[in-house]
Amino acid sequence: MKSSRRRFLQIAGISALGLGAKPVYDAFAKEEHGDKPEIQILKNDKALIAKQWAMVIDTRKLESTEALDPIINACHKIHNVPTKLEDKRHEVKWIWEEGYHHAFPGKANRFLDEKVENTPFLVLCNHCENPPCCRACPTGATFKRESDGIVLMDFHRCIGCRFCMAACPFGSRSFNFRDPRPFIEETNKEFPTRMKGVVEKCNFCAERLAIGKMPACVEASNGAIAFGDLYDPESEVRKLLKTNYTIRRKQGLGTEPSVYYIV
Amino acid sequence: MNDKKIIIAGLLVFIAIILFPFWYGLLKAAPAPELKLTEKAKAAKECVRPTEYMKAEHMQLLDEWRHSVVRNAKRVYVNQSGKEFNISLSNTCLDCHSNKADFCDKCHNYASVDPYCWDCHIDNPKEKK
């Protein structure tokens, strides 16, 4: 066959038409199957949402170890935290008690108000707005969730390298040196345990927020702990921050903790 | 050429030996295990997705599930017929398939897979400990 310029242009034109028609055809093809309901993954209707969850702990209402214990136990119980580990070096904790000097180094004057000095402080993961742990994680197992600002662990990806523990200035993370299961007092069957070789920490009760419940520590605190959206000016935490003098842990490091303390 | 018979017989023996794994497998292959459904699963009739899909793709489904829960805070799964499921390995899959040993494990043993999920996820959510 002899090819002429005319013939070439004809073929090129028809090919171009054909290519252009593909997306149109696809769109129609999709419509035909449109009557089947699609598979969807949704949020629970009752889920609590925020831009950045934050916590305000009123230490004036929590003056003694006896006041803190029920809060700590509530958390550790529902999350299957192994509390029976006797060796301190193997200890796993999500929320615990700390003295002022340890909780707020750098803020401690030589001669301190006696009351502050003797008050036990509740400490937990600060869910920093600028979390150094997430930058240290080589697998993306720990990450700051865009949707609500919680610093979370994806245990499925944790390889136990402990870089995050080294990066966290608050000691909020614990490593499972041993299989935690034998050391759990009473297993909550609704929540997974962890296994030997992964790092764990407080998750701001992401699993409770998702079904419309406040975190367990907030619920157990009789109003001493407030929880809400840091970027909603009407939220409970913002109201408290507006009317009280608050401090945060190691603020100078620039990690922007989301846990505030009224002293 | 008087050795023809011997050569052919030898060849046959050789082929039989070479094919040993195949005919041995045919004779000895363990039959696919029979899976038991719980009363609850029988009553539900259907799995989260069609059975064929579940047989072949349940690991992908679980992967999707955990991703959506951990990363996207989405915990409700709506299947092709509009039925809703709470996304949970222990509290949903093992709610219907509470006979894990006779269901998941049986098939996994047969296929020689050993998911490590149960190091963390509770494998007997129904039983008292």
Q: Helicity of chain B, in percent? A: 40-55%
Query: Could you tell me the number of beta strands of chain A?
Result: 11
User: Which stretches of chain B are poorly predicted, pLDDT < 50 over at least 5 residues?
Assistant: none
Largest sheet of chain B: 2 strands, antiparallel
Q: What's the domain count of chain A?
A: 1
Question: Which percent bin holds the helix content of chain A?
Answer: 25-40%
Strand ordering within the main sheet of chain B: 1-2
Q: Mind telling me the CATH class of chain A?
A: Alpha Beta
Instruction: Report the total helices of chain B.
Output: 6
The proportion of residues in beta strands of chain B is: under 5%
- Computed Rg of chain A: 26 Å
Number of helices of chain A: 9
The greatest inter-chain interface is formed by: A-B, 31 and 28 residues
- The chain-level mean pLDDT of chain B equals 89
Radius of gyration of chain B, taken over Cα atoms and rounded to an integer in Å = 23 Å
CATH architecture of chain A: 2-Layer Sandwich
Query: Spatial order of the strands in the main sheet of chain A?
Result: 9-2-11-10
Low-confidence stretches of chain A: none
The major sheet of chain A is characterized as: 4 strands, mixed
N-to-C SSE string of chain B, H for helix and E for strand: HHHHEEHH
Beta-strand residue percentage of chain A: 5-15%
Would you kindly provide a written description of the structure presented here, covering whatever features stand out?
- The complex is a heterodimer of chains A (263) and B (129).
- With 263 residues, chain A is α+β, with helices and mostly antiparallel strands.
- Chain A has one domain: 2-Layer Sandwich (Alpha-Beta Plaits), CATH 3.30.70.20.
- Chain A has helices at 5-32, 65-78, 100-103, 114-118, 132-136, 163-167, 206-209, 216-220, 236-243, and strands spanning 40-42, 53-58, 95-98, 121-124, 142-144, 151-153, 174-175, 199-200, 225-229, 246-247, 259-262.
- In chain A, the strands form four sheets. In chain A, strands 9-2-11-10 form a four-stranded mixed β-sheet.
- With 129 residues, chain B is mainly α.
- Chain B folds into two domains: 1-30; 39-119, no CATH class.
- Chain B has six helices and two strands, in the order H-H-H-H-E-E-H-H.
- Chain B has helices spanning 4-18, 20-28, 39-44, 51-72, 89-96, 104-111; strands at 76-78, 84-86.
- Chain B has a two-stranded antiparallel sheet.
- In chain B, a hairpin with a 5-residue loop joins strand 1 and strand 2 (84-86).
- Chain B is elongated and about 80 Å long.
- The N and C termini of chain B lie far apart (79 Å).
